[in-house]
Structures are given as C-alpha cells and as structure tokens.
Amino acid sequence: MRPHLWGIFRERQHSPGREFDDTEILRLVAKHIEAAGYQVSLKGPDELGEAGDPGAVLMADPLPSLVFLMCERLEALRVLGPLEMGGIPHVNPLEAVLNTYRDRMITLLTASGTPIPESQVILCNPSERDQLSVERWADLFPIWVKRADVHNTQTGDVELIRSSEELQDRLVALNARGIARAVLQRHVPGDLIKFYGVGGPDCENRQERWFRWFYHRDQELNRYPFPEEALHAVTQRAAIALSLEVYGGDAIVTPRGEIFLIDINAWPSFALFREEAASQIATWLLHRVRRGALQ
Ligand SMILES: Nc1ncnc2c1ncn2[C@@H]1O[C@H](COP(=O)(O)OP(=O)(O)O)[C@@H](O)[C@H]1O
Ligand SMILES: [Mg+2]
Questions:
Q1: How much is the pLDDT for 203?
Q2: Residue 174 and residue 124 in contact, taking contact as beta carbons nearer than 8 Å
Q3: Which of 4, 106, 175, 201 could form a disulfide with 39 if both were Cys (CB 3.0 to 4.6 A apart)?
Q4: Overall CATH class of domain 111-115+188-266
C-alpha cells in the first residue's frame, strides 16, 4: 500500500480574511505530494475526533506516515498528540506550534538571542496586576498591546496604544473576553518586512533553507538598507528556537539598518509565493517521510 499522509486545515477562526489563501496552500502541497506517488487525506481539525477521547485517533486505519498541519488550537493539537508520541512525524512539530503562542514565543526568542522589541507579559485583570510595572511603559507610548496566547484572531487582539487610559481600557476589554494575559511591546519604527521559510535544524547551511522576503504593501516605505544575510540569519535563529520547519513572520528594519523580529507563525498562507512555496514544502515533507522511514 502507498504511504499515506494527512494534511490538517487551519481552524476557520484563525484565518480571518485569509480563509481562501490558507486552504489553497494546503491543497497545493497535497497535490505535489500526490504527484510524487503518495496518498493524502485532507481533514478539518474537527474531523480528527474528540479531544476528550485520547487515543481515538490511533484507531485510524491506515495510520499516516506523516501529518502536516496548519491547525493551531489546543483542542486539535491535543487530539494529534498520541500520534506524534507514537512516532509519526508532524510538520510542524506540535510543540513548535505551541511555541508560536505569543508568550512562549517571546520567552524562547529572548533566550535564543533573537533581536526582538522590548516586551513584557502582564496580567489583564487590574486587581491581580503589579501596577508599577505597567506604569513604567507610560514613558514609551505608543506601545503595542497583544493578547499573550494565540495570534490575532479579531479586532482588539493586537493594537497600538497611545495613552495610559487607552492601555487600561484595552486590558479591561481583553480581561472581559477571558484573555488573562497580554504582552506590552515597544513600538519599533521602520520598514515592515514579511518573510517565509522552509527547512529544519538539520539544514546544514542557510542555502539549503528556502527563504523569501518582501516589503509589506500598506506602508510608507523608506527602504532602509540592511544586510539581507542578517535578515536570513535572524529568521533562521527564530525558527530553530521554536522548532519550526514551515514558517513566516514579520520583521522591522530601522533607519539604522537594525533588524527586529516582531512575529513568527507556523505555516502561514504563503499567498504571494504560493506555487513556489508549495513545491518547497512538499519536497521538505517528502524528505521528512523518508527520514522517518529510516529511523
Ligand atoms: N513592536 C512593533 N513595532 C512596530 N510594529 C509592530 C510591532 N508589533 C506589531 N507591529 C505591527 O502590527 C502588525 C501585527 O503584529 P503581530 O505581532 O505580527 O501580530 P499578528 O500577526 O498576530 O497580528 C505587524 O505586522 C506590524 O505591522
Ligand atoms: Mg504577524
């Protein structure tokens, strides 16, 4: 029987405005894999089984040789857990997806020496919060306030804040939505760059890793010069710190040519580079299947 892979779509709530692009990249990767002679089943995260029934996913027949996934909610990751524990490779690894949750991301990026804007995780509930540590940010306005768990899913999750009143209101609003923690982050003025990458820590050198970057469209662009190689190095360091193999994110280049990594996500939509990315991702997945078979 031909080896069989599963591809898991992203949860719709996590693709605001990008439902089509998110679906397309997964489908296109699946086509490439099928063209290489493998079978692929594409599934929604809700088709995986119940989170309350750990192990149910192991009853699937046949079991996949590899799972590639765009889903990111805890429910789906928990359902897939037993498969990965059973030795079936996941791209991205489930832990890597969890590592992109904002508070973990910031801790791991800081520990790895990746240049990120100064950031602090705080409690949204005013009665639990150390007010002094929040007031210190008043000197830095405007600052960014971002929910500390998942990435932006709706208005208010990631906002530029200009005053103490706005900050208090934002934290109260997040708290009212059941979001316990937020990240306060220094605003870094400069050119906004989007990047994409594919490859794992075993890519011996940077040339083996697929990497693309471009300037975000909606901005007043200054084209501050910077060494492209440094951007590649920063994004690679971040991806390795989070164990990501298929990723994308945001970076800022300052007027002095410094690079700050703002955000890194697991398996983005790759919209501007869909065809090229799909082929690269499929090649990487097939490499991972073959490597798995040898272990
Ligand atoms: N520290 C920052 N300095 C400058 N711009 C930022 C900063 N943080 C966020 N932004 C802007 O806000 C956008 C969204 O923030 P990001 O952290 O990428 O969250 P998400 O992708 O979850 O919406 C970024 O692409 C960037 O344009
Ligand atoms: Mg982002």
A1: 72
A2: yes
A3: 4
A4: alpha beta
Distance 229 CA to ligand 1 centre (A): 22
Atom of ligand 1 nearest to the CA of 185: 1
pLDDT over 60 at 33, yes or no = yes
CATH top-level class of 4-92+275-286:
alpha beta
Neighbours of ion ligand 2 (CB under 5 A): 250, 263
Residue type present at position 132? L
pLDDT of residue 51: 62
**Ligand 1 in reach of 149 Cβ (< 6 A):** no
Strand partners, 246: 198
The ranges assigned to domains in the chain are: 4-92+275-286, 111-115+188-266, 119-186
pLDDT at 201: 81
The model carries a pTM of 0.95
Residue range 161-197, pLDDT digits in tens: 999 999 999 999 999 999 999 999 999 999 999 999 9
Ligand 2 center to residue 175 CA distance, Å?
22
